[in-house]
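Schema walk-through. Below, the input block comes first and the output block second. Nothing else is stored per chain. Lengths vary across the set, and this one has 95 residues.
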Amino acid sequence: MKHLLAIVGFVFVVGCGSKGGGDKIISDYTGLKDRMCKCADKACAEKVTADAVEWMGTMEKEMKNTKPTKEQDEKFDKIDDEMKACAKKLGAEGL
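--- output ---
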């Protein structure tokens, strides 16, 4: 999970500058976080992780190489922290 989240963070940092790009990343990642937090077991967390990896590939192709706003970066960090906490509850933090 740490590796995945580091990559997602990288995608966010380099891929948010186009109009609405950062907001789209935040929205998509919020959806993944919500799914992770609804999981009741590690298998579910692993499925969400796999979906997140697939999503990352899509985001890398779609976004431009520009920097997010400070507000977008802070929102993303908060969502990321929440997702990590949910994964940890399921014993999936090492994914």
